[in-house]
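### Sample
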Amino acid sequence: MKRILIVKVTSLGDIVETLPVVSDLRRAFPSAKVDWAADAAFADIIRWNPGVDRVLSAPLRKFKKARNWNDLKDIGASIGELRAEKYDVIVDIHGVYKSAIIAFIARGKRRFGYLNQDLGERGAAFAYNARFGPRPHTDAWRGMRVSVADALGYQLDETPDYNVQLPAPTRSLDIPSGKPIAMLFHATSADVKKWPKEHWGEVGRWLVARGYVIALPWGTERERDEAQTIAALVPDAIVLPKLTVEECAHWIEASELVVGTDTGLVHLAHALQRRTVMLFAATSREHFGVSAPGRSVSVGDHGAPPDVPQVLEAIESVMGTPARTVSGSAQSGAMVR
């Protein structure tokens, strides 16, 4: 096996949760080159994994929104780059039309895709000359890893290795030291995933009483207004400036705790091995949740959002003991009673 192409196009959380596949392939085929085809909006996150040799990206989302001629030219150029290599195997672990088209255009001996009943879009089946086995009875993230391992004939290491290495910040982010930081990711792409602002206020005050400084990120003007509403309920809470995904990742890395809804940046917190609590209200916890004993936990479920006591209990479960004030740098993780 000399060259392998991963096809996973979007979105942020899915891209993050696919990173362990790279480490799996590296262990199984140490001398192989591993490339990845994705939407340009998420290419930088893939580049944070040094196990990826080449990131092939096209502004698919951007073109769909703006229909800009330059974006179309970039898509054309990316097709040429994609076809510049011939792959021993292509693994489409997305399973929709756009990923299938990429897999079909790429030059490869074997193009693996999901069985028809497991595809996100049935029509994607046209692209494949080989199939993964039946979808395993596990969460979506481990399921991807199992599918590729079974198809390519290697043993899966049960501990996922995200291997995320952030580049140095390009500007000062004014991350406070002296107290542990808890980031509360209240914002989501869909209102049905949201948790009441009053609940966030209760959690924030509970954490402040235990020595934390609360940081509230946001992405849109509406989300900034929501962050300011929550901040008014929590003493000394910080409403962050608008950050890039990379800058937000540095804040996450500097934090002691991340609590948030089922969003990509909370998946990133889990990948960066922060203590993470993920809240579910409109999606399946069993299918899309995060879990690492003593470090990451998911609460709530589709149609059954958690209440405040459940979230506080989850926070204590990942902290090991009730939070205490940090002595020294917040990044150190050293805590004193």
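The chain has twelve helices and twelve strands. This sample (Lipopolysaccharide heptosyltransferase 1) is used throughout the tutorial notebook.
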